[in-house]
Write a structure and sequence with these properties.
Blueprint (H helix, E strand, L loop, with lengths): L2 H33 L8 E5 L5 H10 L6 H11 L8 E5 L5 H10 L4 E5 L6 H8 L5 E2 L7 H7 L15 E5 L2 E2 H20 L11 H14 L6 H13 L7 H8 L9 H5 L22 H8 L8 E4 L5 E4 L2 H11 L8
Parallel strand pairs: 4-6
Antiparallel strand pairs: 1-2, 3-5, 7-8
Helix pairs in contact: 1-3, 2-3, 7-12, 8-9, 8-12, 9-12
């Protein structure tokens, strides 16, 4: 074999080795770039719009300082066949995670989801305040007056109080408060309609919405689940007999911002549309967001003769059939006086 051929073989071997070393270095650098922890101290959201080319994804990674060169991403996508599998959406990256973990989320569509738990008994004003503080939610209705909220949502022109069902809701990044409130109202209407269909006969309500008002009062009157139907029974009997409901939560609701946490005799005498000491029947709207159990209690009140109840101080109530019995219970549990022998 002549020297020219040997020299050619040698050059070829050197070239192959050089290419091999170069590819190994490129593979090593790609692995390092894709598996190292991303440089962030707190969680960040990365949004991938529908139809975004992978070249723009790589550019965004480089601009954020997550990747030194876009070539590394192109290699990763090509080697693992991910280029056509990245799904649109908003993805959360946590401190300590890598780009490979992000790409895995994006290929499986594991978008960021948030949760909101609305407790029973809160007012719509409190709910709206909560919505302004939620992460990932786009707030557009914060400045809409309460009396115009239902119109703005396309849900009629009534009061928004009680019209949103308390439950846990999950939502995606950039969901609007409008979307969330419409979902809550749709759920409320579903629960109320189904419960109304199971109501007992001879109730003093002419519509599901009147039952919703009663449910809101029940919700605010007791935190003891076992008492809801008993509370409902008292109020239903009072309505049937033409007695005023005389329930403190409605008075407090009617006072609004004027209520300082201490309900006084003068407050009970101050007439508002919600003062059930001065006005007969149900108040004009719910006074909070009632839950399903309170709604069911309003539509299936417990039987009995009790017309009064008073708080025991432990979360429960004492129920009385007569005013004499009730006054004795008030002296014992509210005024701290022992019953007369």
């Amino acid at each position: 074999m002549n020297k020219a051929v040997l020299r050619g073989i040698f050059v070829l071997l050197v070239l192959v080795m050089t290419i091999g070393v170069g590819l190994w270095i490129l593979w090593r650098d790609t692995e390092t770039a894709l598996t190292r922890q991303l440089p962030m101290k707190s969680a960040e959201i990365f949004e991938l719009a529908e139809g975004t080319p992978t070249s723009l994804v790589a550019k965004a990674f480089v601009e954020r300082g997550w990747l030194d060169h876009s070539l590394y991403l192109r290699i990763e996508l090509e080697m693992n066949g991910l280029g056509s599998r990245l799904q649109a959406g908003a993805y959360e990256i946590l401190p300590g995670e890598s780009l490979r973990e992000l790409l895995d989320k994006m290929s499986k569509g594991r978008i960021k989801r948030y949760s909101l738990t609305v407790p029973e008994g809160v007012t719509v004003e409190a709910l709206r305040g909560t919505l302004t503080q939620l992460p990932g939610l786009k707030v557009a209705l914060a400045d809409v007056p309460a009396e115009k909220l239902m119109l703005e949502l396309g849900l009629g022109d009534g009061s928004p109080e009680g019209q949103f069902f308390p439950s846990t809701y999950f939502y995606k990044h950039r969901t609007t408060d409008r979307e969330l409130l419409v979902r809550m109202n749709r759920k409320l209407r579903q629960v109320l309609t189904e419960a109304w269909a199971t109501r007992i006969s001879d109730l003093p309500y002419t519509s599901p919405d009147e039952a919703l008002v009663m449910a809101s009062i029940i919700e605010r009157e007791t935190a003891a689940p076992a008492e809801r139907a008993q509370i409902a029974g008292v109020f239903v009997r009072r309505l049937k007999q033409g007695m005023k409901l005389q329930t403190d939560p409605t008075v407090i609701y009617g006072l609004g911002a004027a209520f300082d946490g201490n309900l006084r005799r003068g407050d009970l005498e101050r007439d508002t549309p919600f003062n059930t000491y001065t006005r007969p029947g149900l108040p004009p709207t719910p006074i909070c967001l009632p839950g399903k159990e309170a709604i069911l209690a309003a539509l299936a009140p417990a039987e009995g003769r009790a017309l009064y109840f008073v708080a025991r101080g432990d979360g429960r109530h004492v129920f009385s059939d007569s005013l004499t019995e009730h006054n004795a219970a008030v002296r014992t549990f509210q005024l701290g006086k022992k019953p007369s022998p």
